[in-house]
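Progress report, Aim 2. The chain analyzed during this reporting quarter is listed below.
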Amino acid sequence: MDGNGRWARKHGLPRSAGHQRGIKRIKEIVKSASELGIKILTLFAFSTENWQRPKREVDMLMRAFLNFLEKDISELNKNNICFRVIGRGKPLSEELLNKIRQAESLTSSNSGLTVVLALNYGGRTEIVDAAARLFESIQKGAYEISQVSEETFSRFLYAPDLPSPDLLIRTSGELRLSNFLLWQLAYTELYFTKKYWPDFTEDDLIKAIVEYQKRERRFGRVC
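Predicted structure tokens for the chain:
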């Protein structure tokens, strides 16, 4: 979800206005994804690199996440949506971490759309954390080195029960992954749009899905 700040600048508004508009767009796209029958929607909300942004902006985003968890989770729960978060806990505040745990617990038994929020997330960080946990398991005797495979390694990712994404949509015209789900995106179809995230509508989501449906996925095989 890229381009909140540039959207705000384009409209002569502060960056905070762009983020607020972006949060509103999240709610709309989540609703659309649920109605379209999408099973899992993962949203890259805040990266491990985003801490380098101005403190005022970071603080505003953290407050926005708290407000979302306090005000909107009950609506997600009412709509049978399961909510999850992936990423490192530290240095998120204990208040935010508690709200995350409460939201995940409240919606854990829901069977509709699963919304995964990547918060304080980095693809390289996830791989490093998975490697550390795997090494710890080997030290404890749970695995032998000869047993390590891609499948084994995947068990130590932040959400090992979730499948790799079928489609990645990146807004704002940037043509890169920006450290997102590096392990999981090995065979994911990529879709780029020049629209800033605050302008990305349900029609744009449908357009991306239709484009995806036209593609032939071979996963290294000859078809």
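The chain has a mean pLDDT of 96. DSSP finds eight helices and five strands in the chain. These observations will guide the mutagenesis work planned for the next reporting period.
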